[in-house]
Predict the structure.
Amino acid sequence: MDGIVLTLFVLAAFAGGFISGFSGFAMGLVVSGVWLHVITPMQTATLIAGYGLLTQGYGIFNLRRAFDLRKTWPLAAGTVIGIPIGVSILTYVNPGYLRFGVGVLLVLYTIYGLTRPVFAPIKIGTAADITIGISNGLLGGLTGLGGVISTISCQLRGWPKDVQRAVFQPVLFVAFVVISISQTLAGSVTLETLKLYGVGIPFMVSGLWLGFKLFGTINDETFRKAVLLLLLLSGLSLIVPVLALFFWQSLPA
């Protein structure tokens, strides 16, 4: 890895850590935009899962006083169930159409959330939470966005920002555990990837620390809008590649 590639790699790690420290999610969105151009897709996916354990673990530790197992376990259990179902469904559906449809829904939801007053809090029971968790894992298995639905569900309940993160970050941690185990069994974790992981850790941790410091200075409404903007970015990240591929295929040979 030459100097320019290494610089891009560690800067992306820092930026991903910062976003995760600030919002509690979206690290993968940030780093993949750079890493997919400088390292292999398999290394990118493996590192996102590995660093996800670090970023989510850091957030859980810092928000441990707000952690409530009763709020978290239904979403986490459902997510574990949903991930393998989503992965298996991929062999039967067109992933491009699926990603485009999910992306459109995310964009519409975030635009609506940004242009209207704060949602009235919604009360959700345990059975519904497990179902939401399954949907969360299902979407993660299908698109790689394993925390989107759980994050939205926390936002719709009107919880304070610390409580929201103390719920959806453990759910994301569990999702990354499942993904990391699957990658290890599939042989995706190589010595070269582990070396890259070690190189990026100081930068990822520095970004995490700085992002979490900024998180501590904002109010609940600012956090709500920041999460919506990141969800909007998630939706666009699903739509744009599909449109680009469609445009490329429509060009005359």
In short: The chain is about 80% helix and 0% strand.
